[in-house]
Amino acid sequence: MTRHGNRWLLFLSLLLVAAALGLALLPPGSAARSAACAAPTGWLRIAGENGESIPANEVLAGAAAADVVLLGEQHDDEDHHRWQLQVLAGLHALRPQMVVGFEMFPRRVQPVLDRWVAGELSAPALLVQTGWEEVWNFPAAFYLPLFEFVRINRLPMLALNVDARLTRAIGDKGWDAVPASEREGVGRAAPASSAYRDFLFSVYREHAHGQGGRDSRGFRHFVEAQLNWDRAMAEALAARLASAQGDGRPPLVVGVIGSGHLRHGHGVPHQLRALGVGRVVTLLPLAFAEACREMQPGLADALFVLPSKPALPVPPPRLGVQLEDIAGAGSAVRVQAVTAGSLAEKSGLMAGDRLLEVAGRPAGKAAAVIALVRAAAPGTWLPLRVGRGDTTLDIVVHLPPE
């Protein structure tokens, strides 16, 4: 990968973080509203600047009457996934004919998902054959209850995403420069709204390499990469809906997707509308502590405010890198991108480096590197042997204390 390509991967990685964490960039001057804007828990509809409580049966009945329901999440929040499972169960009770699509899987693993639903794979086999640790790298335990729900109810399971290499290529060269044969069948996305471009530009400018204005080639490619990502998921959902037309009442198509792709109807909902899918309902979870700050008109069709919970133990350490296995390279793993401000950046790791050893052990595969880092004790020093060009370096990462 070129240095230019790695730069774009860093941009897209930052956007992925924004989507994963469900970040909403509030307009200047927006202040936290009073706690009266949200009940301690339960469903809300935004009314003015406050939340209006809605009975759960009313929300679920409205969603079950739609064509597509989009369930948002913060990828690393286990309660968001418990909430998604609760909503899936409620919708399934009202409309048993259902299809569930997941952002977490690229399209190429669809045959694996089909075998999982058919009962031919164990959970560990599902994770291995879909390359979970390399492709998604959020705790599988958060998602397995959703996958098991789909399996035990024999519901079709859709892979909504595209390969990360396509997203990087568009961010590097632009959509038009990527051959049609390499676009995984994804069509040209509907243009972004001005509000969505504002959000994307704010993310773009957060990164040190995000140089240039709104009319720059760099920002244009950045937007095209995100729109293609949104479009791919929308097309997968719309295609499944269209394939069932004429067979009586089509199934309810549900998408499990990061909230950053759904907020204010800018991402996937916008692309679904452009594809002619009109009855789309977006439901989002919010933490109680953040509800008043996050709540804005048009954020979603309904919100679920999750109750506060005790602080979790310190999570396992993360270097702050994206990794890929080097085909045919034995025990080397390439650093695709380094997150700004991360342990990796502070320790001197760079995009393009090759990890040869971690804590004295051969790096092997990206999944093995991740496991070794997470197993390291807080406050310790983690030695890395790194290949950079023709040079071998020894880098030591100081993990934060517990």
TrEMBL record:
InterPro entries: Cofac_haem-bd_dom (IPR007314), PDZ (IPR001478), PDZ_sf (IPR036034). It comes from the Bacteria. Residues 319-388 form the PDZ domain. This is Iron-regulated protein. It comes from Candidatus Accumulibacter adjunctus.
